[in-house]
Fold this sequence. Notes:
Elements: H1 2-18, H2 23-32, E1 39-46, E2 49-57, H3 63-76, E3 84-89, E4 92-98, H4 99-108, H5 114-120, H6 141-175, H7 183-186
Parallel strand pairs: 2-3
Antiparallel strand pairs: 1-2, 3-4
Helix pairs in contact: 2-3, 3-4
Amino acid sequence: MKATSIAFVLIAASGISSAKNYQGVIEDIIKSDSRNQGVEVTLESKRNDLWFCVKSLEDFVGPMDVFRVFLQSAGRLKEESFDSVKLCYENAEKFSLPGSQYSMMGKQLETQNVMYTIRTFPEKLSSPNGTPAFEKHRGGVLYEMKWQMRDFQSMNEQWYLADVIVAREAKKEAMRPKVFAPDEEVF
Length: 187
């Protein structure tokens, strides 16, 4: 009984110590490139998965800004090894990318055509239940590009844009006056 308790404590402690917080890395990425201003994300490992969570975005931030921060994080962490990278909004997992793909994107960041990376990114993702999130399109170049860019837009909407829009609308609604002056006072 004592041996199993000690073993359990040691396993639990090793799991806790293996969690790393990469928040300093992401803060440095945002500070070092003025185009990244207005993007708020958290970056941390849980077990051997990296969690890239969008927290909030300023009104002037677009999907390419968020993806730039994501790619720059891959570049900084290219030598790290993760089982998967979870794309999340407010800690809710939306997609999963194999860790090997993340590492490869980081290693190829300086040499790979960014448009190719953007176009082919959604087809590498899986849903939280493990099924492929987007299909791999086949056909002529223009046909593929059309559907891949639609998938990229859809991925961003599902990942965080829809939630950001809902949060912004709720904030506007909360600021809307609830009580109005009587007509006699206005006219």
